[in-house]
Design goal:
Length: 829
């Protein structure tokens, strides 16, 4: 059907079973399901009609509205500007070399498993190929499938930072100290060494602080001396939170601190210190899982607030006597001194583990290909396999793949158990595949209820495998909008369930496998998911701790899954940023192979590196990707992809622009470049006429996201023949400021930092800061008076008399004056 030119598909059925298959088969297809098993029928059908309509499919709206009383009405009588506002998606880049036609023809025949055709081509008897041809066809299909699965396999590694530069610290550093004095002496050692390295240390004690009170304190300290940095030692407080026991006091105080810094307008980088949160030296370290929560929060905060995020540093002391005993000063001096080297910032590292003898940076690397290919020996769980969250999306898909490989008894636990939607149908499906199935109602966050469930495992099928896939829905919001309750909700089933399972199974017969389902939000982060990332980081740490103690444990950090686990809108966003959702069947097979391999820790995600890497690193460098050749190649291509070096259209466009600018006054150059910027911004945002785009409006307000920022940088790089900075849109936040930056850059007059571009960029930052202040704060700080003084200064420099306010001018204006005002002042002509 696709070869016939069809690009819009409507699936009419009980569920969207074929939709993901078509999307995977036809890259540029629009696939619309008319019904979904777990969604309201009317809403789903209307949504399907709307999507078909926007794809140009004629809809009989008269029939749709028949009998509803709907009627046509007259539209307003002024003329419409009949503009098309739908942006055309960029074409998918074509990669790879041209295929050999002979090789292609051969594999086409093999793929069709057409014995007669191949025998005729080879000039042999068909019977000679009867067994070989189907086997070859299946082998090639299996190898291609395995190549996809292997391309999804990554792991976290720690790289030695041998050349970590030593540099002094300057300025005022706010050191956030836990309310309870930590007995290891680490807090005192850090503040002491900071002072020795040149910092003016200002300790601020925090314990269960109210957000508003802490913001007021920070505002007061910042007013006395603008801080050069903020160092938080709050995570070191491991006590349970009074109101939310699943959280530590340290995590709660760290969240409150990050929010209060935003409220107070403190823009100094925030660094957080943890102790024993990560296993930088596997096999030698037993991690403290409760400390790991801050690392998961940090990954998302680095995305949401790249301008004020410093990093996270974990400290471990060799031969540490434990929290109840004071260590020797020598144990503290080396790692704390290296901590100051990291804070100085010259290394660029933002996720560091410090040990007495070494410093390590966190990296994402390729994992070894699976040793259990899809066509090889298949791992089979014996006895009972417990899957928490077993009737939900991830749990159900996992149960299916385990049933397919011959699992003996599947015990599916969820809060609603047999009453969960689709539970009966799932049980019937699994039993049809040969598995014995029990569906039980159990809240795994309830330790006693979980103990009763484990005690009820049948003696004839003892528990051998545990898959912890339980978890609540997540609230996606910026950190400033999340409450501690959101963090507790995200951690409730995930963290408590994993902890209870670990504790309750400690004294029982050893397991073959203990698997926790984590998330990429704890590794590379996900915007608006600080709470979810925090909970998943604890899961990873629970698995690390188990392995260090000699118990089986596997942590799988998943990228997004398709198949109803993300809706169409979110799936489109994920594909746009370079992390397309994975087909559930393939992801579940990756899970099976991870268990067959005995993998201890694995990241499973489908990265579109040419799209993901430039977007992920747009606002700041991301050392996490430094060890991945795919990411480095994508970044090199993005930063050097001006098109000017290779000649062709890019070079021609750059030469044409240079000719247009040559010899013109600065003002005319500015207008040419503003038209250039407007043209490309309008194309990205779907404007029909670039002249209607307000050049003084910030890119954020215009609807830009990080992907659009990367695309704009690429377009302008090709048009100018220059390698433009990745932070271009952040540094020059409006089209007008960006155009002036390009003028200064191309003219070489050095005015980009101190001239008009610098002034415009500074005004953009002032405007952004003002939006975060309350009227009382603006008035109390005298901001209005200072801005009025600046206006008077500009008027004086221009030698003009300040014009009357717009309102006064319009009050006495004629109709023609109003039209002239709209044309000239507002730029609508």
């Amino acid at each position: 059907v696709a070869e016939a030119g069809v690009r819009t598909f409507l699936e009419v059925g009980p569920d969207a079973a074929l939709t993901p298959m078509v999307e995977q088969t036809v890259d540029d297809a629009s696939v619309v399901p008319a019904s979904r098993r777990d969604r309201d029928e009317a809403t789903t059908l209307i949504t399907a009609l709307a999507r078909l309509h926007t794809n140009g499919v004629p809809i009989a709206w008269e029939e749709f509205f028949a009998g509803t009383g709907a009627r046509r009405i007259d539209l307003p009588t002024y003329a419409f500007q009949r503009q098309w506002y739908w942006a055309d998606p960029p074409a998918s880049p074509k990669t790879g070399t041209a295929a050999d036609p002979v090789d292609t023809a051969l594999w086409e025949v093999l793929g069709d498993a057409d014995t007669a055709s191949l025998a005729q081509r080879l000039g042999v008897e068909a019977t000679a190929l009867g067994e070989v041809l189907p086997a070859l066809s299946e082998w090639r299909r299996s190898e291609a499938e395995q190549a996809v699965l292997d391309s999804w396999r990554y792991r976290v590694a720690w790289r030695s930072l041998k050349d970590l530069p030593s540099a002094p610290l300057t300025g005022t550093w706010l050191v956030m100290v836990p309310g309870v004095v930590e007995r290891s002496g680490l807090v005192g050692a850090v503040t002491e060494v900071l002072a020795e390295r040149g910092a003016d240390v200002v300790p601020v004690q925090v314990s269960g602080s109210d957000r508003a009170e802490l913001a007021a304190t920070l505002r007061e300290r910042a007013a006395a001396a603008a801080p050069a940095g903020v160092l938080s030692l709050l995570a070191l407080d491991d006590r349970e939170h009074d109101r939310y026991p699943v959280l530590t006091v340290g995590l709660a105080d760290t969240v409150t601190l990050a929010q209060a810094l935003q409220d107070a307008g403190v823009t100094a980088p925030l660094w957080c210190v943890t102790r024993d949160a990560v296993a930088a030296e596997p096999g030698r370290e037993v991690v403290n899982a409760r400390q790991a929560a801050v690392w998961g929060m940090a990954s998302s905060m680095a995305l949401d607030h790249p301008d004020i995020w410093g990093g996270v540093i974990d400290v471990r002391l060799d031969d540490d006597p434990g929290p109840d005993t004071e260590p020797a000063p020598a144990l503290l001096s080396v790692p704390v001194s290296r901590l100051c080297d990291v804070l100085a910032g010259s290394s660029g590292e933002d996720q560091v583990a410090l040990r007495a003898g070494a410093a390590y940076g966190r990296r994402l690397v390729r994992a070894e290909p699976s040793g259990a290919p899809a066509h090889g020996t298949r791992w089979r769980p014996a006895g009972t396999t417990l899957i928490t969250g077993g009737t939900g999306g991830l749990g159900a898909h996992t149960a299916r793949v385990l049933a397919a490989v011959g699992a003996e008894h599947l015990l599916l636990a969820s809060r609603r158990g047999p009453r969960a939607e689709g539970a009966a149908e799932l049980a019937a499906e699994l039993e049809a595949r040969g598995a014995r199935v029990t569906i039980a109602a159990c809240d795994v966050a309830d330790r006693d209820a979980l103990a009763r469930l484990l005690d009820a495992v049948p003696p004839d099928a003892p528990l051998t495998t545990v898959v912890h896939a339980a978890g609540a829905g997540q609230r996606i919001a910026p950190l400033t909008d999340l409450g501690l309750g959101d963090f507790a909700d995200a951690a409730h089933a995930k963290v408590l369930g994993a902890s209870h399972l670990d504790e309750l199974l400690r004294d029982r017969p050893p397991l073959d496998a203990f698997v926790v389902f984590s998330s990429g939000s704890a590794i590379w982060g996900s915007s608006g998911q600080a709470a979810y990332g925090s909970a998943n980081a604890v899961l990873d740490a629970v698995a690390q701790r188990r392995r260090a103690l000699g118990r089986p444990a596997t942590a799988l950090a998943w990228g997004p899954w398709d198949g109803g686990l993300v809706d169409a809108e979110l799936a489109a966003i994920l594909r746009r940023v370079g992390t397309p959702p994975m087909a559930p069947e393939r992801a579940a097979e990756a899970f099976r192979q991870a268990l067959a391999d005995g993998a201890g820790e694995l990241v499973v995600a489908d990265f579109d590196w040419p799209r993901f890497a430039p977007t992920y690193t747009l606002a700041r460098p991301r050392p996490l990707l430094d060890a991945l050749p795919d990411a480095r190649e994508a970044l090199d291509a993005a930063s050097g992809g001006t098109g000017a070096e290779e000649g062709g259209a890019g070079a021609a466009a750059a030469a044409e622009l240079a000719a247009r600018l040559d010899g013109r006054p600065s003002a005319e150059q500015g207008r040419v470049l503003l038209d250039l910027v407007r043209t490309h911004v309008a194309a990205l945002l779907g404007y029909d006429d670039p002249r209607t785009l307000d050049a003084s409006r910030p890119f954020d307000d215009l609807g830009f996201d990080s992907v659009a920022a990367v695309d704009l940088r690429t377009r302008l790089g090709a048009a100018t023949g220059r390698r433009l900075p990745s932070t271009m849109v952040f540094d020059y936040a409006t089209p007008a400021a960006l155009a002036e930056f390009l003028r200064a850059e191309l003219s070489g007059d050095g005015r980009d930092a101190t001239g008009t571009a610098g002034v415009l960029a500074a005004l953009d930052r002032i405007e952004g800061a003002l939006t975060g202040l309350a009227p009382g704060e603006i008035e109390g700080a005298g901001v209005g008076a200072r801005l009025n003084g600046l206006v008077a200064k500009v008027t004086e420099i221009l030698g003009r008399t300040a014009e009357a306010p717009v309102g006064d001018r319009l009050e006495t204006a004629s109709a023609q004056d109003v039209f002239d005002f709209i044309d000239n002042e507002l730029g609508i002509s």
